[in-house]
Amino acid sequence: MAHILHGRSLLELVYTELPPFAIALLIAETFFKFGSFSLEAIAFIVVWYALSVPYTWALSLLTRRQR
Questions:
Q1: If you average pLDDT over every residue of the chain, what do you get?
Q2: Does the predicted model carry a pTM greater than 0.85?
Q3: How far is 54 from 62, CA to CA, in rounded Å?
């Protein structure tokens, strides 16, 4: 999610954001039953961001080691 704010290409967004997005969506659909769309949407975005930060950090470490 952090990369969306930096204007990356669509292919980069798919590789960097799709896995955290999918996991966050599964978590939200399974566990979030707040009775309010707004609260569930906010919680989903928070979880997506919380998963995206370490995922993109790990990807950057892996790409540095491969160079």
A1: 88
A2: no
A3: 12
Residue 54 has pLDDT above 70, yes or no: yes
List of residues 6+ apart from 34 with CB closer than 8 A: 40, 43
DSSP 39: H
| Cα dist from 52 to 19, 42, 49, whole Å | 8, 15, 5
Q: Which residue has the tokens 């009775």?
A: 35
Question: Cα(67)–Cα(31) distance, rounded to whole angstroms?
Answer: 40
d(CA 38, CA 30): 17
Instruction: Decide: helix, strand or coil at residue 34.
Output: coil
